[in-house]
Write a structure and sequence with these properties.
The structure is a single chain. With 285 residues, this protein is of the alpha/beta class. Helices cover 37% and strands 17% of the residues. The longest helix has 22 residues. It starts with a strand and ends with a helix. The N terminus is likely disordered.
Length: 285
């Protein structure tokens, strides 16, 4: 960026080359014990409820070497212990990006605690990837299930998230994780969802031996589900943004009433407790 004759001139020549982006100015943060990290920008998918493809533009991947350079920079300049991957599609093209990156992390002994707060696509996970994540010191692993119902995934254009959760859990257990180390996201609150469908998905996750975290749907302007909600009169184009708050769904647009939501939370607690008991029977005996 520069100026000529008092006018600002912007150079977007390298805008599409994500490897040319400067590292974030983490030095401005007061607390650098935990830092966010991205190996890519955007998302190639267009799930009906998600705005990632609208906010972040086209999908762009950093090279493993560029990612390693940033991790080395963090290690050499800050006393950071935790790194959280915030990619929307961290496991896309795993042989090209995440697996080479993890091998380099292990090779160079970049001893962070790694976390994946954004849900991972379960059908991108194989036995080798689970082993690499364990060796690289991944502590928080959250998986993107959304629903166990194929028709839900088809309706929301999320079919890329369909996978064999039980098999994936087996990969992680073989790598040395306990099943209670894993959590899956179950989506709740879309206008067409029934309580029974969500409950079935929660119990399915429990039967696979993993804990459940409920992810509440929020209608985001510009998404396909937002447009459908406006068309069906749930919201208006100029509705107060406060009405898009995810905690309002039992009161404004969902078939899942507050009473039904409390039931789902009870089922969630029971499933999570059962999974914990399986991994730590002496503690709960």
């Amino acid at each position: 960026m520069g100026s000529k004759n008092g006018k600002i001139k912007r150079d977007f020549e390298n805008f599409n080359d994500i490897n040319s982006y400067p590292f974030p100015l983490f030095s401005l943060l007061r607390d650098k014990d935990s830092l966010p990290f991205l190996t890519s920008r955007g998302c190639p998918f267009q799930c009906s409820y998600c705005a990632s493809h609208l906010i972040s533009g086209k999908f762009r991947e950093r090279s493993p070497d560029n990612c390693i350079d940033e991790l080395k920079f963090i290690k050499n300049n800050f006393e950071t212990k935790h790194i959280a991957f915030y990619d929307d599609a961290l496991l896309l093209n795993p042989e090209k990006r995440i697996k080479p990156l993890l091998r380099k992390i292990i090779e160079k002994s970049l001893n962070f605690h790694f976390h994946t707060p954004n849900g991972l696509y379960i059908n991108s996970i194989d036995e080798e990837l689970a082993i690499l994540m364990k060796k690289a010191n991944f502590k928080t692993i959250r998986l993107s299930l959304e629903s166990s119902k194929a028709d839900f995934l088809k309706r929301t254009k999320s079919e890329h998230k369909l996978g064999d959760l039980k098999k994936i859990v087996g990969y992680f257990e073989k790598a040395g994780y306990k099943s209670s180390d894993l959590e899956v996201y179950i989506l709740v609150g879309l206008p067409f969802q029934e309580m029974e469908e969500v409950e079935e998905s929660i119990k399915y996750a429990g039967d696979c031996g993993v804990r459940v975290r409920l992810a509440y749907f929020s209608p985001i302007p510009g998404t396909e589900d937002w447009k459908k909600m406006v068309e069906n009169g749930f919201l208006k184009e100029d509705s107060d943004p406060l009405l898009q708050n995810k905690i309002l769904f039992p009161f404004l647009w969902s078939k899942i009433t507050p009473e039904k939501l409390e039931h789902l939370k009870k089922v969630q607690r029971e499933v999570n407790f059962r999974v914990s008991v399986q991994d730590f029977p002496l503690i709960y005996s």
